[in-house]
Each structure stands twice: as C-alpha cells, then as structure tokens.
Model the fold of this input.
Amino acid sequence: MRPYPLFKKMKITRMKKYSVLFVVIVILFTCSPLALAQSQDDYRPRGIFFNLQFTFIITWDVNEIQEPIMPGETREVNMTISYTVTRGALGRLLLQLLEGKSFPIQLSVEDKPDWCEAWMLPEDMTGVIPSDEIGVQYSSLFIHVSDDAPSNYTNGYVKMCGTIESMKGPFNILTLIQGYENDFTILFVAGSGP
Done:
C-alpha cells in the first residue's frame, strides 16, 4: 500500500483552497481603494466585483401609534429591523465565506420634542450575516409624553438613527463589507381634547 496517492490528493485539495484565497485577496486589493477613498455617507456600490454592503430598513405597526398618546402615558411601538448584504457579481463567493459571522447593529433616538421622552430597548443588537436571505431583529421604541405636554392634539415625532459599521478584514486593513446608516422618523399625536 503506497501513501503517495493519498498525499497527492491532500496536496491538490490544499492547493485549491490556497488558490481561492489568493484570488479573493487579489480582488480585494484591486477593489478596496475605491471603497476606502469615500466616506460612508457618499458610498454607493460601483463596478462588478464584490461590492458588499450592509443595508436595512426599520418598520413598525402604524396602528400602535394611531391613537393619541395622553399626557403621562408611555406607549410602546414594536420595531422590526430587516437587514441584508447587497453584493456585486463576484460577491457571492466572499459572502459565502463570511456567512454566519456576527456584526453589531446600533439604534438611537436622535431628535424629539421637548415635551416627551423616547428610548429604544434594546439599542444594541447583534445580526448574523445571511447569504441570500434577509435577517431580522426586533426592538421597541418607548414614547413617554410628559404631564405638561400640550393637550390640544399636538403632532409629535421621534427621529431615530440606525447604524451598522463597516466590517473589516484581517488586521483591520481592508473593508470587507461597507457599513450603512439611515434615519427613520415616527409621527404621532399627543394630548387630549381642549
């Protein structure tokens, strides 16, 4: 029995893995300067290579805020965060390599009227990179209308910001997946009749 054929098969398998890794690194080096030269806000995927970028939307049930929020009341609004990773033509390979890795999602309240308080629970959550699917996380927005709030059916708003930071590669040199940030505004009515 000769060990040579088994050794040769292992060597070929290892060479295939190194070849794929080499191709991925070469493409990342040729594509990443475009992504690194632009700010996150101005970035739009270009070209046909990887161009991986996080994206998400936040949705809520409008029925939860259809009724006016009375002074002294705290209203909970359930939020659904749906996220995915958009990609270029060759991004599927890299996305499959990154599938299952976790990343942070941060939510925050950016602006609101002086006569109310608003907060998110949880503000920080962890997403998992999907391949061709949409991932989902859940949070709640709490709106508390002060006792001294206007009592004449005043329009209110809560402006929220959601952020996913860019995912860096080894040694934090290359950006593997571009980050994403977006603002969302919930409108509600506060107060009781005159």
